[in-house]
Design brief:
2 copies of one chain form a homodimer. Chain A is about 40% helix and about 15% strand. The first copy, chain A, has about 425 residues and is of the alpha/beta class. A 9-stranded mixed beta sheet of chain A has the order 3-2-4-7-1-8-11-10-9, with helices on both faces. A two-stranded antiparallel ribbon of chain A has the order 5-6. In chain A, helix 5 crosses helix 17 and helix 9 packs across helix 14. Chain A has a domain of about 150 residues: Thiolase/Chalcone synthase (Peroxisomal Thiolase, Chain A, domain 1, 3-Layer(aba) Sandwich), CATH 3.40.47.10. In chain A, about 65% of the residues are buried.
Chain lengths: ~425, ~425
């Protein structure tokens, strides 16, 4: 990529919060995340007004399904409800199921690279606790092919990713099933443990250990989808994340004016975006005989590396889309950490642990930190930004210079990746 | 704009069709529009495969609310259900209420201008006749601020644009109210008459004349929102539109290889995108004292002219968002056809008629041609493309070289414009 957008910073809400219980709606969430995010960056409303006079600032909202969860569309226009400084600022809403935040970030990055805007504000947002879990599970089914894969099925997504677990077991006949299932349990344990160091993680005060994660079925860890149990799943979460990106010229000028160090900023070095067949059965049929179970996920990773001119060797930290333990398991080889079929080794030898060579999800990931669907892509990008600029606090992976994130929508249908690093 | 994306062509479905009555879903609609659209352009699946190998083709789906109308999200991935050539092709869904198609087109155009892709396929799509009109009216309410402007209100949008009619009457005290209301009726008549020459228009066989359009209230032309009656409204429509755009290099090469004339293609010369305050009351409060009732609509038009280096003088044809007659009325001055407050003159003296100097909606517009919400932006752009390349058939405005379109979302909240013309 020629022009590399700068990440100025951002914020996320506390993913432990239940906004409905607080008596608050998505509009309150917009207000809080915009105020917190702009304050974190040091961008004030006067500057937004100045930029808007010249049509040099845009808003990009990633959201999966406020239509159903909150009976509201047109979220790209809701920053005008937060502050009049946003009157006139272009905005849109971007959706690709659980990869909605990434599609918004990609659209924003493209605007910067095309030279259209100097500053883009990306907000990923989802309120999910407005309904009970059965209804919410049905809403989530619209991220798959609803009529064929979700209608009338209780909790369709655990079942789809349970099928991914099945395929992982089937195609890895050289590895004992118990070893794979223990790998899933260890993935869960690591994510929960990491989350305990993240002050905004949903599960930071929840109990988890590997033994519990490996005891599937029964009353204490109910089976939810084939081989997978509750401990293999990310949980229903309310939350939002905001990130501000800018053109290199603006970023440098902004650093000078605001007294910020340029080292507090990172750059978007590469991106990948690949869409696999919508239906999970078609994914499995297409990937038969391929080294990778999810070849388009691998391709999206490779595209981001290629655009960045980097590879797994230069990645110091990784955030991946562990909606379920099986999706993180399959991602290990997609990132190039191991060859396909050797994923279990990277779990067993500590490679993906916080202190390992290729730490995955120091934030806690979706399982530990939480998964407010439309916000996850933005939250992941923000966490990699924090890591490579040394601002991740308690979950900092020391010395990180470059990282990659993978955000998926549906049953690994939309695959989006970003390589983010020090300039 | 430095690089100007080329429009290779496209297609739209027959907006008279009721897909639910045909026993067909949005998936059938995707299939038909993709097959028709690619055939119209002359782009085959082998070429899409070739482009995708190099990651040079992307898909952009504009859709307002399939979550509610069709219980389905993640529409950006549905072209993989049409044909395996789309396996791996990046795709996303873009939403800004009734301006969703334009947001998709803008994202696609930006990708071309940033040099990311050679070819972008934009599909605008909405199935609306899956529910009855009361339920559908409630769904449409999510394009406004649902909780404050739509909840519990029967047909909220006719009422919102009825309020726009009120403001037009109030702020034009120098014009007799009857004259304004007759102007609205004439707008309706023109759109219906134009639609009769468009073989894909929803109302092409419907009855309308000015006398009927001006008889509001009563059994034959029911009042639906303050001063507005049924004849002032666009109707619930099922439909889709597809457009293919490309980089200048690709377009020229494609013309050579396919034996197409370069004159059958047009270029995206400029765009505008402005978001006004979400709530209609805030729009009215903000524009108090301004020459324009909808200043951000005007600004979006001006931005497109400026980027194109053109003005109203060079516009030979216009497509505007006449969701209601009041929105077309207000757009007349926004386009610069008249000064604010003189809109009625352009209606009365025939300026906006098909044979006038600044013909608006030769296609029939939303009132005549139909308004499948997520498709409208793409359909408008396609119609301007057809006009400036002499391919509009029965509704051709002879000698058109340049045109502009205005697509709005919500109560003129999101405003998107494109200037399209001959290279």
């Amino acid at each position: 990529m020629s022009i590399k957008p700068y990440i100025l910073g951002g914020a996320q809400t506390d993913f432990q919060r239940n906004w409905t219980k607080e008596g608050k709606t998505f509009v309150s969430m917009f207000r809080e995340i915009v105020e917190d995010g702009l304050a974190a960056v040091g961008l004030d409303y006067d500057e937004i007004k100045r930029l808007n006079k010249e049509n040099r600032v845009g808003v990009f909202v990633g959201n999966f399904d406020a239509e159903q969860y909150a009976n509201q569309g047109h979220l790209g226009a809701f920053l005008t409800e937060v502050h009049p400084a946003f009157y006139g600022v272009p905005g849109g809403r971007y959706e690709a199921a659980c990869a909605s935040g990434s599609v918004a970030l990609d659209a924003a990055g493209t605007k910067i690279r095309a030279g259209d805007y100097d500053v883009c504000i990306i907000v990923g947002l989802e309120v999910m606790k407005t309904v009970n879990s059965a209804v919410g599970g049905d809403f989530l089914g619209t991220a798959a092919y609803y009529e064929k894969e979700a209608k009338g099925i209780e909790f369709p997504f655990p079942k789809l990713f349970g099928k991914l677990a099945d395929v992982i077991v089937e195609r890895n006949s050289h590895v004992k099933e118990d070893r794979i299932m223990e790998g899933f349990a260890e993935i869960s344990r690591i994510n929960y443990d990491n989350a305990k160091t993240n002050p905004r993680a949903q599960t930071r005060s929840w109990f988890m250990n590997k033994e519990h994660a490996n005891t599937r079925g029964g009353d204490y860890n109910m089976a939810v989808g084939g081989r997978l149990a509750i401990t293999d799943c990310s949980q229903v979460t309310d939350g939002a994340a905001l990130m501000v990106i800018a053109s290199p010229e603006y970023a440098k000028e902004f650093a000078k004016k605001s007294g910020k160090k340029l080292e507090s900023m990172s750059v978007l070095k590469g991106w990948g975006h690949r869409v696999a067949p919508m239906q999970f059965v078609n994914k499995v049929a297409e990937s038969k005989g391929n080294d990778y179970i999810l070849p388009w996920t691998r391709q999206a990773v490779k595209d981001a590396y290629d655009r960045a001119g980097l590879d797994i060797d230069q990645m110091d930290v990784i955030e991946t889309h562990d909606c379920f333990t099986s999706s993180e398991y399959a991602a290990i080889s997609a990132f190039g950490i191991t060859k396909p079929g050797e994923e279990h080794q990277a779990i067993e030898d500590g490679t993906i642990a916080r202190t390992g060579k290729k730490p995955i999800n120091p934030s806690g990931g979706l399982i530990g930190a939480g998964h407010p669907v439309g916000a996850s892509g933005v939250r992941m990008a923000l966490d990699i930004h924090k890591q490579v600029t040394g601002q991740a606090g308690g979950y900092q992976v020391e010395g990180s210079k470059n990282g990659i994130m993978l955000n998926i929508g549906g049953s690994a249908t939309t695959n989006m990746t970003f390589v983010i690093g020090q300039e």
